Amino acid sequence: MRRVTTVLVLASFAAVSLALVGSRAAPPAVTPAHPSVTWFGGPMRGAALDFSTCVGTSCNTFPLTIDVPPGEWKRKDGGVAVRIEWPDANDELDLHVFDGKGNDVAASIELHTNVEQALIHAPAPGRYLVKVIALHALNVVYTGRAWIAHVDYKRGATQRSTMRFAPATFVDPQVWAAEPSIWAAPDGAVYTTAPWLITQATSMVWRSLDGARTFSIKPTNLAPGVVDPRMRPCSISAGGGDADIVTDRTGRLYFADLWVVNSTVAVSTDRGNTWTCNPLAASSPEQDRPWLAPAPTADGDGPGVDAYLAYRDFAVGGLVPYAGDVVKPMQLHLDVTRDGGKTWKAASTYARNRVGFAGPIFTAADGSLYHVYQFESSVWLARSTDEGRTVRLFRVSDRFGSPANYWVAGDVDRAGNLYVAWVDQGTWDVLLTVSHDRGEHWSRPVRISPPSSETATFPWVAAGKSGDVAVSWYGTPGDYSRPDAAPPGARWYAWVARSLNGTAASPRFQVARMSETPVRFGGLCTQGLGCTDRKMGDFFEIDIARDGAIVATYDDDARIQDTIDGLSPGPYVMVTRQISGLGMGRSAAAAVEPSGDAAPPDEMTPEEVAPLDLIALPQYQALKGGFRLGLRLSSVTDLTRALQATGSGIATDAYWLALWKTDDRIEYAGMHVDRNGRRSFFGGDAPKSIGRPDASTSFADKLASYPATFALRGRVDERTGQILIDVPLGMFHLRAGDLLHSLQAFSMTSLLDRRTFLQPLYVVDATPAQTVRIR
Prior knowledge:
By secondary structure, the protein is mainly β. The chain has 4 helices and 55 strands. The longest helix is centred in the N-terminal third of the chain and has 15 residues.
């Protein structure tokens, strides 16, 4: 229940202190001779959403002067840490620090804590303003402190990178989605999922059977021969908030999807072809961010634990004023299944009222379960060695600002060595630490992000054989006070660092960019729901496949934005795979497009599938002032056969689309065949959004279409079995020497008579991505 605290004496002291601060006397300064300043603030009352809306007693400011020579930070990295503390965690205060130009250079917005702490990294000498905002408070007096802080880490040793990555694949040419997850199954399949829309059933699941070169969506069959037009694995269940996917050692596939009130967990025993769905799987309602992990004891319907489901309480414990301790304390929950995912039962709860953002869970070969998370300015690890019945907590590292930027991440290698990575607030460096004794002790953190990725966020960890660890993140070369404060010209890329001796005292890393082009321009949100533009979500993932290759899924939002009703589209889900270098036994074979791999949504005869079956990568031929794309099919003699049985009777339209990316655009060219067999050739330099008819402005960033912005010249060459489309450079903002990144071809058909927000086209076939230089 709510704790009662006497603050009369402290309030009197605060009044005197504030009177001094408000006088003409110069405020105290942080200097090398006087490295620490303390003050008091309050009493604070009221409720404000953020620093722009707080007024009166819901705001409190303190002028802070910093006079530390820049050479101090060159000598030893660090800055000035700012901390506020108050008696009762049921009162919520937020902390922001502004420089002399009004820039928000440091912030802390933790929930259900009585401490906020942030680091102003390497601040220039000058005047700063500490601003404290009452999210909800009743006569709160706080103590403030600012001091010189030097960040603890050592620089990782690097060597020339041998890692090479394939051109990134468009997982789906239509779906725009944030924070994708990836899982490389032992049988070679690769699965990707991403939350899509919390009010419209569950998120999507895509599967690749060709080493992450191409993906197909795995929807539910509503009835024999009838595919759900919304293309979800659990159309009867709620979801769309947060998603995760794993397989256990029996090959059983688990898919978790959040809908706030609970989590849907779907299970498939045939690699996602069919699903069994439980819309109320979790033992506790009202939750956030479900994570899955397979158990090494998985045996289906046998007695062993098959998988774990972990999640955190969402709002009651952290947002409802003064009710958290009474109604529902914020804590972590762990559920288990012993019947292959049919039912889930509570195993334990932990970190009661001492958890901020909860990262992933993972299991070791010896059966140990681990969960990494953040609370205040520390990284934490939860460990269970008895199938979740009891949990021990270990502090991994103390920092000067929150390490949840956005998640702390972790994994365990096959020898049981633990790896935890995070991004330090303030310095925005990617740091990695290692434990050889199941979390009891941790190595000194190692910085693994290079100067060419000076500002980083969204770390993820994947581990393989003993000592093999890879860490990914989004990074940009500029040194910014915060990722979301990066200017419009900032270019973000997907990065990875990998080491094969990660357990050594001084591990060596190879560092590489995984994305050929930027994935984002401008600021990148690290404040979750507190951001106005969080289209990239909160994370992206990597995994290590059975051949030792890193596979990564990330978002790509780096393009000149087209809009619908004033809103910009969302990001594409991309996947890239390592094709050679560190960790791989041999280089991957060159990408090819085989015949016979088209995947229609229903039974079709070979003659009906042939016009949709792409059998080669898009062919490039230079022309004067442009180029010609050739899309080779199994048969082009009767393209209207593509309009046969496609899950709902006779289809109305068929499309063959070539899609590519430049640094700042998505462009396309294609052919359309209507129900009467009429052909048209089209192209465009910006995909459009399909808004939901009853609320288009709310859903402008979810689904892409490719309108005929340009009428193009084209023909069907029956001699070579190709669709040939001419692409003029001038129309497409292209010139000789430019690269067409992620060039792919797709064949698609309409499932129903009209295409709507919830009835997109069905992708029947796709080619692997390639990069082509315009000659």
